[in-house]
C-alpha cells in the first residue's frame, strides 16, 4: 500500500510552484513592513496553516490581521478582502495589497520583491497537493520540535526567498545548530526534498548512517537529503520520516 501523501512531480509542479513563491514573496514583504526585525531573522518566515502559508500576526491601522495564501479556495486573503490566484499575477496582488493599505490610511510602501517570472501559472490540483504536503510536513516538524528537550528551537517557518519550510534546533543555546527543512526543489536539487544540515558542520557529520532512500549531498551544500518521492511512495511515510530525523539527535554529540 502506498502513502496517502500526494505525488509532487517537478515537471507538473514547477510552474505553479514558481508562481506561488512569487505570491509568498509579496505576503512576506507585507509582513516585514509591520513586525519588528528578529535577531535570528525569523521576521522573514511565514507560518503555515491547514490551507497554506500565512503571515505572523500583524497590527495594521489598529486592527489585528493576517494575510494568507489560501490554497484550498485559490485566493490571497487579507482583512476581509481576497484576490483570486486564478486571475492575478504576483505584481498585481502586490498592487492590490498596496491599495488595500492606502484605503485604510496606511501610507507605508511595501518593498517590491525580485520577481523571476511575473507571470501567472496556477494549477488548482498542483496547488492543493502542495498544500497537503506542506501541512503534513509542518505537523511532522511540530512533533520533532516537541521531542527536543535541550536548548531551544526556532518557530516552524516557511521562508519566501528559498520557499522552504524550516525548523532549527540550537541544542547548546549558542550558534551551533541543526536544521531540518522541506524544499519544493531548487537549482541544486530539482525535485522536492527534505534536508538536514549542521552549522558549523562537525567532524563526522556526513558519516552518520541514514535510512534507505536518503543520501548525503555535497554539491551546492552539505546535508542529508531525503527525496520527497521516497516518502510519497512509502507505505509508512511517518516511520521513514522518524528514521530520517533521528540523524538530528545522532549529530548532537558530534559538536563535542
- Write down how many β-strands occur, each being a DSSP E stretch of 2 or more residues: 14
What string, H for helix and E for strand, traces the elements in order?
HEEEEEEEHHEEEEEEEHH
Structural class estimated from helices and strands: alpha+beta
Give the integer mean of the pLDDT values: 95
Unreliable stretches (pLDDT < 50, length at least 5) are none
Main β-sheet, in a few words?
Answer: 7 strands, antiparallel
Radius of gyration: 19 Å
How much beta, percentage-wise?
Answer: 15-25%
Assembly state here? single chain
Tertiary shape: globular
The tally of domains stands at 2
Number of helices: 5
**Distance N to C terminus:** 42 Å
Q: In which range does the helix fraction lie? A: 25-40%
Briefly say what this structure is.
This protein is of the alpha+beta class and 256 residues long. 32% of the residues lie in helices and 23% in strands.
Question: Which properties best describe this structure?
Answer:
single chain, alpha+beta, 2 domains, 7-stranded antiparallel β-sheet, 5 helices
Describe this structure in words.
- The chain is of the alpha+beta class.
- The protein has two domains: about 90 residues; about 130 residues.
- The protein is built from five helices and 14 strands.
- The strands form four sheets. Strands 8, 9, 10, 11, 12, 13 and 14 form a seven-stranded antiparallel beta sheet that branches. Strands 5-6-7 form a three-stranded antiparallel beta sheet, covered by helices on one side. It has a two-stranded antiparallel ribbon with strand order 1-2.
- α1 packs parallel to α2.
- The protein is globular, with a radius of gyration of 19 Å.
- The termini are far apart.
